[in-house]
Amino acid sequence: MAAIEMRNIVKEYGDGFKAVNDVSLDIADGEFMILVGPSGCGKSTLLRMIVGLEDITSGDMVIGGNRVNEKAPRDRNLSMVFQNYALYPHLTVFENIAFPLRLQKGLAEEDIRRRVQDAADMLELNEHLERKPANLSGGQRQRVAMGRAIVREVNAFLFDEPLSNLDAKLRGQMRTEISRMQRRLGTTTVYVTHDQTEAMTLGDRVAVLRRGFLQQVASPRELYEQPVNMFVAGFIGSPPMNFLPAVVAGDRLKLPFLEIDVPAAAAGRVTDGQLLLAGLRPDHFEDAGLLDDVKRQRGALFRARVDVTEWLGDAQYAYIPFEAGDEVTKQLAELAAELDSEALRTQLVVKIDAMSRLRENQEAQFWADTRRMHLFDPRTGENITRDESAAAELAQLEQEKLQERMA
Ligand code: ATP
């Protein structure tokens, strides 16, 4: 086990394209770190640089205190699990798992048997040890690939989208298994995914990448509650955060449907007439008829017409179209190139109680938890209402949890 430190890592491909831009990231010994971001953001490239499958253009890659930039993959003592399993078809499950141990030379057969057995126990592969990969299900093949990774004592496990070939139910199940296995072994883990559910549920911390740049590294909870910018705010959470145009009018803020005081966190940071984007997550709303007393004390009420509802069993989504007004629309259009398309949507998605009797094409009263709203500068994407002390508290909590686990 070892810590992984990345210092100003750059990857420039032969054609001059920079896939990874000045990324510095510290992964603690025993930590489960997720690399997440949309397709092409550079997460796989970064993982491949850790493992040594890709040259590093500049910067330092340090594993267990040693700079490994020039070290061959086999000398870095890491285990990698790929999306396509990469099993040997002619070998049994047992021999596939034993493979890295046989390469180590000098290990007694008895020792190999015991270690393969331990890995198979952990991954519930005991009944299948004599089978060939062709006779296994996708989930079982992925378990064999993981068995092969955990059978050796390594500095770190590296996972490249290991669950993306599996169906949704199996993915959910394997997620818990990976979590349990990582907790039990306490091995530093770096896990690449584009699936934000995996990112939120698996990792101690999540590093969000966009176009080769690191955006934020934080616990899932901090990313969700205190995103540094619009990109992170919009990428984490499903359905994504709503971005509503908000115009400053003196000490008030005018949004579609709503008018509220400029939040204290933004005071002094905004000017009269300024256009901002207000971020409110779908779960920051409720059908006003179903509010409990605690919620009624805070937030704001508004009336709106829903055009589509989706009933999910435990909740429902309601879609509310809105118009931003000509002037605001014009300003947003000018910013379009810098904004993510999410920000230019003209519908609000709200998540409300399954008990709601709300009907399509009817006006209804809603409640918005405006105290949890974030305000973004549409020019820079910066979250101007991020609560640094709340964020620091969440980071501290995460660190304590990791320390407890590693003790
Ligand atoms: P995905 O989820 O689609 O795998 P990713 O975030 O893992 O995406 P990478 O595979 O790391 O992205 O690629 C990052 C960027 O680098 C992409 O824009 C890709 O087109 C580019 N890229 C990858 N390999 C090369 C190469 N050999 N030469 C030039 N550009 C490359």
Structure, described:
The chain is of the alpha+beta class. The chain folds into 2 domains: 4-225, P-loop containing nucleotide triphosphate hydrolases (Rossmann fold, 3-Layer(aba) Sandwich); 235-386, Nucleic acid-binding proteins (OB fold (Dihydrolipoamide Acetyltransferase, E2P)). The chain has helices at 43-51, 93-103, 109-122, 138-150, 168-185, 196-202, 220-225, 230-235, 293-296, 326-335, 388-406; strands at residues 4-12, 18-27, 32-36, 58-63, 66-67, 78-81, 156-160, 188-193, 205-210, 213-218, 242-249, 252-254, 259-261, 275-280, 285-287, 300-305, 308-311, 315-321, 347-353, 363-368, 374-376. Helix 2 (93-103) packs across helix 3 (109-122). The chain is elongated.
Q: Structural class given helices, strands, pairing?
A: alpha+beta
Poorly predicted spans = none
Tally of extended strands? 21
Any idea what the shape is? elongated
Quickly count the domains. 2
- Report mean pLDDT, rounded to a whole number: 91
Q: Indicate the multimeric state.
A: single chain
**Could you say which small molecules are bound to this protein?**
adenosine-5'-triphosphate
- Share of helix among residues? 25-40%
C-alpha termini separation: 14 Å
Beta-strand content estimate = 25-35%
Task: Map the helices and strands.
Blueprint: E1 4-12, E2 18-27, E3 32-36, H1 43-51, E4 58-63, E5 66-67, E6 78-81, H2 93-103, H3 109-122, H4 138-150, E7 156-160, H5 168-185, E8 188-193, H6 196-202, E9 205-210, E10 213-218, H7 220-225, H8 230-235, E11 242-249, E12 252-254, E13 259-261, E14 275-280, E15 285-287, H9 293-296, E16 300-305, E17 308-311, E18 315-321, H10 326-335, E19 347-353, E20 363-368, E21 374-376, H11 388-406
Parallel strand pairs: 3-8, 3-9, 6-7, 7-8
Antiparallel strand pairs: 1-2, 1-4, 4-5, 9-10, 11-12, 11-14, 12-13, 14-21, 15-20, 16-20, 17-18, 18-19
This protein binds adenosine-5'-triphosphate.
Residues 13, 15, 17, 19, 37, 39-45, 194 line the site of adenosine-5'-triphosphate.
